[in-house]
Design goal:
The complex is a heterodimer of chains A (about 350) and B (about 600). Chain A is an alpha+beta fold and about 350 residues long. Chain A contains eight helices and 20 strands. The N terminus of chain B is likely disordered. In chain B, helix 12 runs antiparallel to helix 16 and helix 22 packs across helix 24. Classes of the chains: A alpha+beta (about 350), B mainly alpha (about 600). The interface between A and B is medium-sized, with 38 and 32 residues.
C-alpha cells in the first residue's frame, strides 16, 4: 500500500508540530524518518495511525483519503518504543489479540505460531511480557503488530530501549522480515546511523519540517541542507568564497587556502558557499588534487579507527585514519589530501551563512 | 545496562508469578497507592549511627500498643488462667453477636459499593477531561482525611434528618405532611455517610492508576482493530482494576472499623462490633464486657477480620505496584465545549452526577455552617451568634459534665501533645522504612500493619485494661487520652512521612559526606531542610487527625476530659444542634486551614492512602 502525506500542518496549542509536510512511501518500501527528538517524527506516525488529525492537508492510502477513518479501521500495524505489550496477557494472547477483530478466518493458533516463528520466539507462548528480555519483548511487539496482516507497518523508535549490540542485530532482522512480507513501513528513529542502515529511503526532519528525502547514499553524500549535512554522519563543514569558475570546476578560497571543488549547481563567482568534506575522504600525507597543511590537535582512538583532529585553513577538521597508523601524534604537522570530487558544495540558496561548528 | 536490566526484570517478575509480588514490595506498599514500584531501585543502605534512635518508636509501640493488645487478647482466650476458646465460641454461637458481626460486614460492603459508585465517575472525569478548577477538585479529595467523622454525622443529621433542610424543603415543595426521606437513623444514612467519607479514596486510587496507565497500551489495541468499547473492556479495565480493588479494600476496612458515623447516623438502632463494645463497656456497663472476657473475645474476632482484610489489601497493592514505567501523559479534552454539548444525554448524566455529589459532599458541610448561625424562634428563625458565645464561655454544661470551652481547650491540648509524641517517633520509624533494605523494611512495615488494622475502640479498651492499676495508672487521666491519640495517629504519620523521606535521594547525602560533611551535619544541613515541608505537613495532618478523633476519647473520657468531637456527639445524641454546629464549624475551619497547609504537600504525603 502506498502512503501519501499532502501538505500536512499540525499544531498543538501554540506550537507548530508539523508545517507543510509532504511525503510519499511507496508500496513495500521501508522509509526511515529521522531527526532530533521533538522534531515531529512521532506526530507524523500518529497521524498515519489515526491518533491525531491534521489541521490541514490530507493523508492518503493508495490514493484514498483516510481522514476520518478510525485507527482500528486503518489496517496499520504499530510498534512502540516501550512495546506496550499488554502486561495482563501472555505472549500468545498478545499476538492473538488483533486476530480477534480480523475478518480473515483461519486457525488463530497456527497464525500465532507462524508469527512467533517469524520473529524467532517459538515456544514462548505462555510467558508473560514481564518474563521476557527487552529484545524478546520487542519481537513480540513486532509479531503482534503483524498478526492482523496490516498493509502498513509503523515503527516508533522500535530499538531505542535496547543496548547497542542487540540493536544492530535486530535492525537487520526487522529489515529482513519487512522485505519478506513486502510491507510498506515507516521507521521512526532519532539514530541517523540506524536510519541509514535499515532504510530504502530516509526522510530527514528538522523541527516541524522535512529537510530532505532520499536514499541513504544521497542524504549522506549529497545533503540538501546544512542541517542534513550536520545531522547525518560525521563531517567537516567549511565556508569558502567562489574565486574561480570553469564549468563544473570551481576554486574556493577557504581561509588563506585555495581549494578545487566540483559544483553540481550554478554558482556565481564571489558567493559564499558551504562545503561538506567527509572525514573518510581525506588522506593524510598522500599526494592529491588538493593539499592543506595542518597541525594535529588531538588523536582520538576508537578501536577500529583513529579520529584525528587537525587545525587547517582556519578550521578544525576531523579526519578518519587507520587505527594501525602509529605515526600520528598531537602537534605534528600533516598534509590533508583530497580530490575535488571528494567535496560537496551544499545548495546554498535557502540558508543563511553557516556558523562554523568545530564539533562536527 | 541492557542486560543487567533485563535480568533484573526477569528475576523479580518470576518471583512475582510464583508467589505473588515480591514480599518486601507488598509489605512496603501497605496502605499505599500505586506509584511506588518505580522507586524500588533508589539507593538504600544499612543504618549507620542513626540506628540508636530505633528503640524509641519500637518501645513506644510495644508498651502502648502491642503489650496492651496482647493482654486484651489473652483475656479473651483464657479462662481461669488456662487457654480456652470458650468466650470466642460463646460469641460465635450467639444469635445476637452473629448478627452484629454480619451487620458489620454487610454495612461495610454496601458502603464500599456506594463509595465506588460515587467515586468512580469523578476518577473518570479527572482523567479524561479538562475543566476550570480541576486542580482544586482533585486537591479536595484529601478533605476526608482532615474532616472529623462526627462533623459528617452532624451534617447528615442537619441535612437529611426528619427536620433536616432536605426534608423540610421537599415537604414545602410538594405540600407533604410527613418527611419523605427517612435517611437519618437508617442503614441508607450510614451507607451514604460512609460514601461521603470514602468515595474520595476510590477517586484517588482509580485516578492515580488511570493516569499512570500508558495510553500507548490503548493505542496499540486500537491499531490491532479494537474499538473503543473493546479497548476499555480488554485493556483499560483490567489494568486499572487492581487500583480499584485496592482502593475498595481500603474503604472496606475503614467502613468495617467505622465508629462515630454508625453510632450517630445509625442512632443506636444499628450495632457493629465497635458500637457493641462501646455501648456494653461504657453505657450499659455489661459485666461480661467490663471483666473483659467476652468483650475481649469480640474484639479478637473483629481484629482477626480486619487484619485479614488488611493483609488482602496489601496483596492487592503489591500486584498493583508492579507496573510503573515511563508513562506518556494522557491527553485530556475540555469538559465544556458549548451550550449545545451540555444537553447531550451523556452530559445530562454528568450533570445529575454533579448535582448528587454537590448535595452529598457540599450539603452537609454547608448545613453545619448555616445552622451554627441560625436560631429557631417562634414564627420563623433568625441569624445569631449565640451558639458561638455559648461554646466559648466557661459555663458548666450538665450534658458534658464540664464546660464547652474546656472541650475546645482539651482538643487543642491533646492534639498538640499527641502530635509532639507521634511526629518525632513516626519520623524515626518512617526513616527506617525509607532507608532500610528489604528485610528490615518488611519487618517495620509488618509492625505497622496491626496498629492500622486495630480500631480505636479496641485500642482504648485494651489501654483501659492495661493501665488501670499502679504502677501505670493512666486510665481516666489526660495522659491516657494523649497516648491513645498518639498511638492511633502514629501509623498514619508514618505512612505520610515515608514518601517524603523516600523522595530524598541518598546520593545527595553521600555527596555531602564525600565533600566532607559529617553524618550529623549532612542530616542537619541537607536532609532536614529538604524534608522540612513534608515534616510540617505530616505534623499538621497528625494534629488534624487527633483533633477529629472521637472513638477512643469517648471510651476513655471522664468529666473534664471531653474533646470537641465528644462534646458534639453528646449534644447530637440529645438532639441539640445549635451548639454542636458552632463547634463543628470551628473544627471545619481548623480542617480547612489544615487542608490549605496540606494541599501543597498533599500529593506526596497522601500517596500511601
Amino acid at each position: 500500500m502506498r502512503v501519501t502525506l499532502k501538505e500536512i500542518t499540525k499544531r498543538f496549542g501554540m506550537t507548530v508540530a508539523l508545517e507543510g509536510i509532504s511525503l510519499e512511501i511507496t508500496e513495500g518500501e521501508l522509509m526511515a524518518l529521522v531527526g532530533p527528538s521533538g522534531c515531529g517524527k512521532t506526530t507524523i506516525l500518529r497521524l498515519i495511525a489515526g491518533f491525531e488529525t491534521p489541521d490541514s492537508g490530507d493523508i492518503l492510502f493508495d490514493g484514498q483519503s483516510v481522514l476520518g477513518v478510525l485507527p482500528e479501521r486503518r489496517g496499520v500495524g504499530l510498534v512502540f518504543q516501550n512495546y506496550a505489550l499488554f502486561p495482563h496477557m501472555n505472549v500468545f494472547q498478545n499476538v492473538a489479540y488483533g486476530l480477534k477483530f480480523a475478518r480473515s478466518s483461519g486457525n488463530v493458533r497456527d497464525r500465532v505460531r507462524a508469527l512467533l516463528e517469524l520473529v524467532g520466539l517459538e515456544g514462548l507462548e505462555q510467558r508473560m511480557p514481564s518474563e521476557l528480555s527487552a529484545g524478546q519483548q520487542q519481537r513480540v511487539a513486532l509479531a503482534r503488530a503483524l498478526a492482523p496482516n496490516p498493509k502498513i507497518l509503523l515503527l516508533d523508535e522500535p530499538l531505542s530501549a535496547l543496548d547497542a549490540k542487540l540493536r544492530e542485530r535486530l535492525r537487520i532482522e526487522i529489515k529482513k522480515i519487512q522485505k519478506a512480507l513486502k510491507i510498506t513501513t515507516l521507521y521512526v528513529t532519532h539514530d541517523q546511523e540506524e536510519a541509514l542502515a535499515v532504510a530504502d529511503r530516509v526522510a530527514v526532519m528538522s523541527i516541524a519540517h522535512i529537510e530532505q528525502i532520499g536514499t541513504p547514499q544521497e542524504v549522506y553524500h549529497t545533503p540538501a541542507t546544512e542541517f542534513v549535512a550536520r545531522f547525518i554522519g560525521r563531517g567537516n563543514l567549511l565556508t569558502g568564497r567562489v574565486a574561480q569558475r570553469d564549468g563544473e570546476s570551481v576554486v574556493l578560497a577557504v581561509g588563506e587556502s585555495a581549494i578545487r571543488a566540483h559544483a553540481a549547481h550554478e554558482i556565481e563567482i564571489g558567493r559564499l558557499v558551504t562545503v561538506l568534506m567527509r572525514p573518510e575522504r581525506i588522506r593524510l600525507n598522500q599526494p592529491a588534487e588538493n593539499i592543506l597543511l595542518g597541525k594535529i590537535t588531538e588523536v582520538e582512538f576508537a578501536g577500529d579507527t583513529l579520529w584525528v583532529h587537525v587545525e587547517a585553513a582556519g578550521n578544525t577538521l576531523i579526519v578518519k585514519a587507520n587505527a594501525l597508523d602509529s605515526s600520528l601524534h598531537e602537534g605534528d604537522v600533516v598534509q590533508l589530501g583530497f580530490a575535488a570530487s571528494d567535496l560537496y558544495i551544499l545548495p546554498s540558496d535557502r540558508r543563511s551563512p553557516p556558523t562554523p561548528s568545530p564539533e562536527l | 545496562m541492557g542486560s543487567a536490566r533485563r535480568h533484573r526484570t526477569v528475576r523479580s517478575v518470576r518471583r512475582s508469578r510464583r508467589k505473588g509480588p515480591h514480599p518486601a514490595l507488598q509489605a512496603r506498599c501497605a496502605w499505599a497507592s500505586p506509584a511506588l514500584a518505580g522507586e524500588g531501585v533508589r539507593s538504600r543502605r544499612s543504618l549507620g549511627g542513626e540506628g540508636f534512635l530505633l528503640p524509641f518508636p519500637l518501645l513506644f509501640l510495644i508498651i502502648f500498643f502491642y503489650a496492651p493488645i496482647a493482654n486484651l487478647l489473652r483475656e479473651g482466650l483464657t479462662k481461669d488462667g488456662a487457654f480456652s476458646l470458650e468466650f470466642v465460641r460463646k460469641i460465635l454461637a450467639d444469635d445476637y453477636f452473629q448478627h452484629v458481626i454480619l451487620f458489620t460486614l454487610w454495612q461495610a460492603l454496601l458502603s464500599t459499593l456506594a463509595s465506588i459508585i460515587l467515586g468512580l465517575p469523578l476518577a473518570y472525569i479527572l482523567t479524561r477531561y479538562d475543566f476550570p478548577l480541576k486542580r482544586a477538585v482533585r486537591a479536595l479529595t484529601i478533605v476526608p482525611f482532615v474532616l472529623p467523622a462526627i462533623t459528617v454525622a452532624l451534617g447528615f443529621a442537619l441535612l437529611f434528618g426528619r427536620n433536616g433542610y432536605l426534608n423540610q424543603f421537599l415537604m414545602k415543595l410538594f405540600g407533604l405532611s410527613e418527611p419523605p426521606l427517612p435517611i437519618m437513623y437508617s442503614l441508607t444514612g450510614i451507607v451514604l455517610a460512609h460514601a461521603f467519607y470514602n468515595a474520595p479514596i476510590i477517586t484517588r486510587t482509580v485516578h492515580a492508576a488511570w493516569e499512570r496507565l500508558d495510553p500507548r497500551y490503548e493505542e496499540s489495541a486500537r491499531t490491532l482493530g479494537a474499538s473503543r468499547f473493546y479497548v476499555f473492556k480488554d485493556i483499560t479495565l483490567p489494568m486499572i482494576l487492581p487500583g480499584l480493588l485496592s482502593g475498595a479494600a481500603l474503604v472496606f476496612i475503614f467502613c468495617f472499623l467505622s465508629f462515630p458515623i454508625v453510632l450517630s447516623v445509625g442512632g443506636g438502632r444499628f450495632s457493629t462490633i465497635e458500637v457493641e463494645i462501646y455501648t456494653r463497656v461504657v453505657t450499659r456497663l455489661d459485666p461480661e464486657f467490663i471483666n473483659y472476657k467476652l468483650g475481649a473475645a469480640l474484639a479478637l474476632i473483629g481484629l482477626m477480620l480486619s487484619l485479614g482484610m488488611t493483609y488482602l489489601y496489601l496483596r492487592l497493592q503489591g500486584s498493583f505496584a508492579r507496573q510503573a514505567e515511563h508513562v506518556r501523559p494522557r491527553s485530556t479534552i475540555p469538559l465544556f465545549v458549548g451550550v449545545r454539548d451540555l444537553l447531550r444525554p451523556a452530559k445530562i448524566l454528568l450533570w445529575l452526577y454533579v448535582l448528587v455529589s454537590v448535595l452529598l459532599f457540599v450539603g452537609p458541610v454547608l448545613a453545619i455552617v448555616i445552622d451554627s448561625f441560625w436560631e429557631d424562634a417562634p414564627g420563623g428563625g433568625r441569624w445569631t451568634l449565640r451558639w458561638y458565645s455559648y461554646i466559648f464561655t466557661p459555663d458548666y454544661e450538665a450534658l458534658l459534665g464540664d464546660s464547652p470551652l474546656q472541650a475546645i481547650l482539651n482538643s487543642l491540648g491533646f492534639g498538640l501533645g499527641a502530635t509532639m509524641i507521634a511526629v518525632p517517633l513516626g519520623l524515626i520509624f518512617a526513616y527506617m522504612i525509607a532507608r532500610l533494605r528489604w528485610a528490615g523494611r518488611r519487618l517495620f512495615d509488618t509492625l505497622l500493619m496491626a496498629p492500622l488494622a486495630t480500631s480505636s475502640i479496641v485500642l482504648a479498651f485494651a489501654l483501659l485494661r492495661a493501665f488501670n492499676a499502679p504502677p501505670f495508672k493512666l486510665a481516666g487521666t489526660a495522659t491516657a487520652v494523649i497516648i491513645a491519640h498518639a498511638v492511633i495517629i502514629f501509623p498514619f504519620v508514618v505512612r505520610a512521612l515515608v514518601p517524603v523521606l523516600e523522595n530524598l535521594d541518598m546520593k545527595i547525602v553521600e555527596m555531602a559526606r564525600s565533600l566532607g560533611a559529617s553524618r550529623w551535619r549532612a542530616l542537619r544541613e541537607i536532609e532536614l531542610p529538604l524534608v522540612a515541608g513534608g515534616l510540617i505537613a505530616g505534623a499538621v495532618f497528625a494534629f488534624a487527625l487527633s483533633l477529629g478523633e472521637m472513638s477512643a476519647t469517648l471510651m476513655l473520657a471522664r468529666p473534664g476530659l471531653n474533646t470537641m468531637p465528644v462534646a458534639i456527639y453528646r449534644f447530637l445524641s440529645q438532639h441539640s444542634l445549635g451548639a454542636p454546629s458552632a463547634m463543628s464549624t470551628v473544627m471545619i475551619a481548623v480542617s480547612a486551614l489544615a487542608f490549605i497547609l496540606l494541599e501543597r504537600w498533599g500529593e506526596r504525603i497522601f500517596k500511601h492512602f
